[in-house]
Description:
alpha+beta, twelve-stranded mixed sheet, 33% helix
Amino acid sequence: MTAELVRGQNHPLPHTRLEIRVSAGHPVLAAATLVDEAGRLPGAGAVAHPGATALPGVEVPRQAATEHRLAVDLEAVEAAVHRVCVLLALPVGVDGPSSFGAGAAPVVTVTAPDGTRIADYTITGLDRESALVALELYRRQGAWKVRAVGQGYEGGLAALLADQGLERPAELAGSILEAVAQGLARSVAAPPPRVPEADRVRQPAPAAPGGPIDYTHPGRRPAPGAVPPRPEQPPAPPAHPAPVAGDATGWSMDERLYNQVWSMFEDLARTTAAYRSACQFAESRLDQELDRVLSDPRNRIGGAGDAARAAAKAKHDELTARAQEALDRDLAQLTAESEVVEPALPAAYARWDSPVWQAYRVPMEAPMALRLGDLHLPERPGLRIPFLARLPLARGLWVDSGRGHSEAAALLDEAELRRLALDTAVALVARLVAVYPADGFRVRVIDPAGAGAAAFAPLVEAGVLAAPPAAGAAGVSAVLAQLTERVDLMQMALRAGAADDLPPGMDPAEHLLVVHDFPHGFDDRAVNQLRYLADEGPQVGLHLLMVADRADAAAYGPVLDPLWRTLMRLTPVPDDHLADPWVGHAWTYEPPLVPQGSAVLRQVLSQVADSRRQWGR
C-alpha cells in the first residue's frame, strides 16, 4: 500500500534502488544534495544538479520541466553520506509562478524501479518560497527511510544551500540557474492549456436538405431501393480504435489537428520513456542478481553459479522482451495515427511535398501554428512528429550554420553547410509569408556582404520583401534603426492603452527581420539593437530569424549568450538538440527543406505576390 506522507512523517524503504517522481504543474528544476550526519554539505561536488547531473548513487534531470524522474541507488552512495535531500527550485526567465505558493502544490512520489509506488507527498503550505527541500532519504540503524520535509526558502536556491553549510552558495546557485537557462533554450515549449471539452460549444454539422449527409463514396453506395448485403458474421472489434484525423478537442479542424499532433508528440515521449525505464530496470535487476551470485561462496564451486547467472540473464531477457513488445504495440498505433493525420494537415502544418500545397490559396486569416520541421526518436526514426510552433511566434528563430555536435554536419564542408542553412531560412520565410493573409506579414532582410543573394532570389523576384536586402554597415544601421523605432512606438502605444492610435503610416502587420551572416557588418550599437529587437520585438509583432554560426561571434564572449538563448535553435541538417517538455528526451530535428527540383516554393510565392498586388501591397 502506498504511504501518503505529511510534513515530518517518515516511512521505511523496502528497496535501495528507487525512482523519485516529481509533478509540479509548472516548470521546476530538480537537484539532490548528499549531506553528512549533521546535515552539512562537504562542498559543491556533493550537489547533483542540471549542470552536473550524476553523483555516486544519484542522477537528476538536465533541465527544468513540469515532471521529473530522479534515479537513486542508495547502495552506491558513499559511506559518509547519511542523507540524500531532494531539492526543487523555480527557474528564472520562464513563464510560470515566481513562488511555489502562486502555483499548484508539487507532488513527490517514491517508487521502486518497476514503478510500484512506495510513498507520496503533496507539498502544501508554501507561500513566497522559490526553493525547497522536498524530502530526504536517510540512514537509520543500518536501514534507509524517507521523510517528508517540505522546507521552503524565500531566498531561493542560494539560501537553501547556505542552510546546508555550503561555502559561497550564491556561486553554485547561479551556475545551476545558468545551466537550467541553457537547457530551456533547447527545449520545445509546451502548448497552452486546452479548453476542457465541457466548456466548449460544438457546432453541429450542417444537415443536407433531404436529411443527414451520406459520407459513403458514391461508387460504394447501394442502388436506390437495394438492401445492403448482411454479413454472415459480425467482424471482430479491432484491438485499438481505428485512428481518425482531428480526433481531439478544438473549435475548428485546424485546432483539433494541432491538439492531436501535440498528443502524438506527448504519447511518443512517454511511451519511449516507459520503454527506456523498463530496460534500465532490467539492467539494474540483472546487476543485483549477479552481485548476489558472486557474493555467495557456495556459487563458486560446481554449476550452481552458472545456473544462477543463466537464470538472471533469462529474467533480464524476458523483461527486455516484454518492454520491447509494449513499445512495438504503442509505436504501431502511433504510426497508424500518423499515416491518417499527415495527409489531413492543412498547408501551415504540412510538409512541402504534401499535395495540399498544389491547391494553395492565400488565406484570409493566420493559422494557429506553423510547421518548423519534423522530430523523431532513435527507437523509431521513421515515425516523424510535425514540429508545430504557435503563431505569432513567441521566440525568434536561429538557423545554425555551424557544425555544432551533429554527425550529419561533420560530413559537410563549411560552404555546403552555410548554403543549406540559408536554404532552410528561405523555406521558413516562405512558409511564414504563405500562411498569413496578403496584408498581414512583412519581411525585411539584412545581408551585409550580399553573400545570400542567390538564396534570397525567390523572395526578391516574387516581390514579397518589404524592401531590397540591406547591405553594408550603413544598410544594417538603417534597418535596425527603423525597426527599433517601430518597437519603441508600438510599446509606448500598448503601455498607454492606445494600441489603435498608432502614428500615420505605421503598418500594423507582423514583421520578420531576417539576419544573414551575423556579426558581419554589425558594430556594438547594432549588436545592442539586435538584442533589443530579439527581447522586446515579439511582444509587438516583430520577429527575428537569424542565420549564423555562433563561433563567428565568439569575440563578443558572454555578452551574446542571452541572445542565443532567446532564440529557438534550428539546424539545416538532422541534429538531436531539441528536448520535449515532458520527460526531456533528445529529439532529432529535421528541417523543412523544399524537395530538390520542386517548384512548389516559387509557385506559392507567386500566388502570394499576386494576392498582394490585388490588395495594393
